[in-house]
Design a protein that fits this description.
Aspartate Aminotransferase, domain 2; seven-stranded mixed beta sheet; binds pyridoxal-5'-phosphate
Length: about 400
């Protein structure tokens, strides 16, 4: 039995069966490359679902983690730590929100956002407890996040869910206007639906949401867990539209590869909703994760990676338009910056498998979309290699 076979057997015996990863075991990464136990090399355009913003084992991030691990690893919220303070300050400086709460994941950031919205109205004596979200959205797996998620298949068997939550079609302002009322605490929307299939909000949609919520006296939450920290070419995707939310979330790349999430809001909302002891997290804002996040933000600035995301997004669009002209199964190029979706006329899983066999790691979004989330420092040659592999994989008999 090979080392890989032995590991896979142990995985099947002891891991809970809610994941179905392909049969290889990752052991090492460097930049855009990943290696398995058999020494096979992969080009990694999955990046741990958009987490590894600078690729694997970036020297600046690795050094920051090592230094922090040797200095101070945990204080909890009982005491201030210098990295927590510094990261809050940095996130405030790149967003419209002055106040930051740190947690450990995207779903916790969403949970904090929903709780902040409800508590804000509770403290103001207003009977607003409702949330309006969109069909096809993804906001996480805790009860709050799962309830506002607009994918009933993910909710099946977990009810009863949170009360007072409704969903309307993404991009439909009239439906949103009709759904938001005097009982609505907040509207929660992804500026680009990620997990749902890389659907970019139609022009004017985010501004329309702002207008509707303002008029109705409800809060507006942008879930930037997947779109944030530069992936679309701006720090946060809604910044392309000059629309300011009341609350926003961040996670994935914000921890530079370590578990970290953030809920951001305004001074005014935080002062009312987040009084002492109203919300907390033991691990949230762990100094090692914050140090990794700070190092990641530094590199994004130093290496001009927001511009690289925008530029490489353009390169991807050109490359995949050329692929589409040869492979009609590729129906549509979707996305912004380095959040890329290739919409097919068929299920995307066989293509993902054929790419894997050729050494390219991808994820899927929705049933028919191959999702590419390369690191923000990806170069043109790697993008070309990915496009070549995908075009070849599309001709594989298992896909074609
Ligand atoms: C927009 C959005 N919100 C929330 C989440 C949940 O994040 P996590 O898996 O870190 O809990 C995700 C994860 O993919 C996401 O894309």
């Amino acid at each position: 039995m090979t080392e890989t076979q032995a590991l896979l057997e142990r995985a099947l015996r002891h891991m809970t069966p809610n994941y179905t990863p392909p049969p290889f075991v990752a052991v090492k990464g460097a930049g855009t490359r990943l290696w398995d136990t058999d020494g096979k090399e992969y080009l990694d355009f999955a990046t741990g679902i958009g987490v590894n913003a600078l690729g694997h084992a970036h020297p600046a991030v690795a050094a920051a983690i090592a230094a922090q691990a040797a200095t101070l690893t945990h204080t909890s919220n009982t005491f201030y730590n210098d990295k927590y303070i510094a990261l809050c300050e940095r996130l405030a400086s790149i967003s419209s929100c002055a106040r930051v709460f740190l947690c450990n994941s995207g779903t916790e950031a969403v949970e904090a956002a929903l709780k902040t919205a409800r508590r804000f109205f509770f403290e103001n004596g207003a009977a607003r407890t409702g949330f309006v979200a969109t069909h096809n959205s993804f906001h996480g797996r805790t009860y709050g996040g799962l309830t506002v998620t607009g994918q009933p298949n993910l909710q099946q068997g977990f009810g009863p869910l949170l009360p007072d939550v409704s969903h309307v079609p993404y991009g439909d302002l009239e439906a949103m206007r009709a759904a938001v009322g005097p009982k609505t605490a907040a509207v929660i929307v992804e500026p680009i639906q990620g997990n749902g299939g890389i659907l970019v909000a139609p022009k004017g949609y985010l501004a329309g949401l702002r207008e509707i919520t303002k008029k109705a006296g409800a809060l507006l939450i942008f879930d930037e867990v997947q779109t944030g920290i530069g992936r679309t070419g701006k720090w946060f995707a809604h910044q392309h539209d000059e629309v300011v939310p009341d609350i926003m979330t961040s996670a994935k790349a914000v921890g530079g590869g370590l578990p970290l999430g953030a809920m951001l809001t305004t001074d005014a909302i935080a002062a009312v909703a987040l009084k002492p002891y109203s919300h907390a997290s033991t691990f949230g804002g762990n100094p090692v994760a914050c140090a990794a996040g700070l190092a990641t933000l530094d590199v994004i600035v130093k290496e001009g990676l927001l511009a690289n995301c925008a530029r490489m997004g353009g390169v991807a669009q050109e490359l995949f338009q050329a692929v589409a002209s040869k492979r009609p199964m590729l129906k549509e190029f979707r996305g912004r910056g380095l959040m890329v979706g290739l919409a097919l006329d068929r299920p995307a899983k066989p293509l993902q498998k054929a790419c894997l066999a050729r050494g390219l790691l991808t994820t899927t979004a929705g049933n028919t979309v191959l999702r590419l989330l390369p690191p923000l420092n990806v170069q043109g040659a790697e993008m070309e290699r990915a496009a070549t592999i995908i075009a070849e994989a599309m001709a594989d008999p298992s896909v074609a």
